[in-house]
DNA sequence: AAACAGACCAACCGCAACTAT
DNA sequence: GATAGTTGCGGTTGGTCTGTT
């Protein structure tokens, strides 16, 4: 919105300017010992803006309480600072947020919580107030609709970071980065881990760089991989013949949450964001709650439709998962029952395998609320606002990042349909296109 | 056309951290 | 170390705009 600063004034800006000038003159005449100046509140006038800009031009930023004294502007220092930082300072980017910015905000919020100023530092030209307003309105709307607050990519990252407690939580790769740079960014994001633990992005990175299609022709031997197989209908198999979502006989639904594009980049948004690879080569697809339309498939039907040349891919993925499985152990449940994933060199202990399996189930549950009943995937328009998704309120300000538990409450949609609707491929219900759906 | 609801935005308030004396 | 002043941040409020009924 580009509202005029004086839009809500009961008097015109000119009148306000006149009043300000009068007050300024009176104050000058009154001199020392005069009654305390009654500072003005409310929207700023263009004249006040001009005075403030002129002051900053002369004296620079800071020392805001001196503005009133030096210019006669009837505003407190706080108000001056706010006006300057939010509206008058140069290089401010006005207008609505771009899809990239929206995604970055989601990522940053997942990472930082309500740290608007720190988020603004990652968004040049944007103010904390702007980001805060944006997030609050979008979040409120989505919660009311029972939709997940975070995009699926961010949910996955949250799921991984929530299940695994690490020494740090590295910056996310920028969605603006081109594909190769994103892989580098992922590397950079994981490179700072000095402990023996894996970086939280490792799983996704491995999946991203594997660059292979996946398939499950039979139940995987690894319990770690079973959830993937159980939800195989949510994987895309790039090697197979293209299966149209509308193809009645198509066993697979081409969902495309492409982690290889860096967290937060939907592969369905290639027009907006650079893909990892310039060529549409085969890639691993992770489960997603994105649906172009309803696909009431069962895993059995999915498996029945697999083509033989995908067998090798399944083995490849399973091998990769097994390696990951071997590299991670699960601590005994904490007091609160949370399992803690940690790296270790040996094989799993007796109970670890089951818990890893549970972890992956949990991950899928968080990612895809419909997984437990895929046959009931409703039509996109059947939103079910029966769950108040919640954002974590990170009240523990400035916690030591080495100990911070990014316990963001994953805003899982209560209704199976909500995520379908929200992250649909038709552009109607995308993250960045929510403004008028409720 | 009017009423209403929701979205959007600017600005205020209180608090905490920081800095100077 | 205590105090006052300043700055920054996050939560909240209130006004306007816009779409819907």
TrEMBL record:
<feature type="region of interest" description="Disordered">
    <location>
        <begin position="332"/>
        <end position="359"/>
    </location>
</feature>
<dbReference type="GO" id="GO:0003700">
    <property type="term" value="F:DNA-binding transcription factor activity"/>
</dbReference>
<keyword id="KW-0221">Differentiation</keyword>
<keyword id="KW-0677">Repeat</keyword>
<dbReference type="GO" id="GO:0030154">
    <property type="term" value="P:cell differentiation"/>
</dbReference>
<dbReference type="GO" id="GO:1901141">
    <property type="term" value="P:regulation of lignin biosynthetic process"/>
</dbReference>
<dbReference type="InterPro" id="IPR009057">
    <property type="entry name" value="Homeodomain-like_sf"/>
</dbReference>
<keyword id="KW-0238">DNA-binding</keyword>
<feature type="compositionally biased region" description="Basic and acidic residues">
    <location>
        <begin position="340"/>
        <end position="358"/>
    </location>
</feature>
<dbReference type="InterPro" id="IPR017930">
    <property type="entry name" value="Myb_dom"/>
</dbReference>
<feature type="domain" description="Myb-like">
    <location>
        <begin position="89"/>
        <end position="139"/>
    </location>
</feature>
<protein>
    <recommendedName>
        <fullName>Transcription factor GAMYB</fullName>
    </recommendedName>
</protein>
<dbReference type="GO" id="GO:0005634">
    <property type="term" value="C:nucleus"/>
</dbReference>
<dbReference type="InterPro" id="IPR001345">
    <property type="entry name" value="PG/BPGM_mutase_AS"/>
</dbReference>
<dbReference type="GO" id="GO:0009908">
    <property type="term" value="P:flower development"/>
</dbReference>
<keyword id="KW-0805">Transcription regulation</keyword>
<keyword id="KW-0804">Transcription</keyword>
<keyword id="KW-0010">Activator</keyword>
<feature type="domain" description="HTH myb-type">
    <location>
        <begin position="89"/>
        <end position="143"/>
    </location>
</feature>
<keyword id="KW-0539">Nucleus</keyword>
<feature type="region of interest" description="Disordered">
    <location>
        <begin position="376"/>
        <end position="426"/>
    </location>
</feature>
<dbReference type="Pfam" id="PF00249">
    <property type="entry name" value="Myb_DNA-binding"/>
</dbReference>
<feature type="domain" description="HTH myb-type">
    <location>
        <begin position="39"/>
        <end position="88"/>
    </location>
</feature>
<dbReference type="InterPro" id="IPR001005">
    <property type="entry name" value="SANT/Myb"/>
</dbReference>
<feature type="domain" description="Myb-like">
    <location>
        <begin position="39"/>
        <end position="88"/>
    </location>
</feature>
<feature type="compositionally biased region" description="Low complexity">
    <location>
        <begin position="22"/>
        <end position="35"/>
    </location>
</feature>
<feature type="region of interest" description="Disordered">
    <location>
        <begin position="1"/>
        <end position="37"/>
    </location>
</feature>
<keyword id="KW-0287">Flowering</keyword>
<dbReference type="GO" id="GO:0009555">
    <property type="term" value="P:pollen development"/>
</dbReference>
<dbReference type="GO" id="GO:0000976">
    <property type="term" value="F:transcription cis-regulatory region binding"/>
</dbReference>
<dbReference type="GO" id="GO:0003824">
    <property type="term" value="F:catalytic activity"/>
</dbReference>
<keyword id="KW-0217">Developmental protein</keyword>
